[in-house]
Write a structure and sequence with these properties.
The complex is a heterodimer. In chain A, strands 2, 4, 5, 9, 10 and 11 form a six-stranded mixed beta sheet that branches. In chain A, strands 1-3-8-7-6 form a five-stranded antiparallel beta sheet, with no helix packed on it. The radius of gyration of chain A is 13 Å and the shape is globular. Chain A is built from no helices and eleven strands. By secondary structure, chain A is an all-beta fold. By secondary structure, chain B is an all-beta fold. Chain B contains no helices and eleven strands. The chains are: A mainly beta, B mainly beta.
Chain lengths: ~110, ~120
Amino acid sequence: KNEVEQSPQNLTAQEGEFITINCSYSVGISALHWLQQHPGGGIVSLFMLSSGKKKHGRLIATINIQEKHSSLHITASHPRDSAVYICAVSPAARQLTFGSGTQLTVLP
Amino acid sequence: DSGVTQTPKHLITATGQRVTLRCSPRSGDLSVYWYQQSLDQGLQFLIQYYNGEERAKGNILERFSAQQFPDLHSELNLSSLELGDSALYFCASSVGATREERELFFGEGSRLTVL
């Protein structure tokens, strides 16, 4: 079993829809990261969370440490949000472990 | 622009060859991380340097080595290349090495194709 599980693997939405991507992990962690990988391959760090909730523009990330679960929400989705979203965790004293990613396609 | 610079962006080489990938971290960042992203394995941590010293090692093959220089740039050396080494290699940097300083900034990646 992978230490980091993301769902769904693929997601297609219409422009304007509210989107949720989920991440579950099985180990104790010191932080959780949400990353965005564009079609060209570049990776952008969206959030680093150790508790609670963070918001940046139309993106919201939440984490529940007790349940070992995090969600990434995108409000009013837009075609430019189309990308792969990757959850990664920092287990204590160990380096990042990555989920397999969620391919998001937002149609106009 | 993350401020992390990786060169080359693309590299095509043959099996058995050796290549060097270069990374310049964001100004002020002391930690450099190397990651490999292949189609079948996804993203995997290879190695971390902090202020010139190796800090952590992940799934890095013995044919691969890395170093961080006094000016904090880092190089990843891949030798005796095999077809399976074809992948995107990412460098990331962060201010420090502790949990609180681990926001990561990624470079655009170096795409290696081994023929």
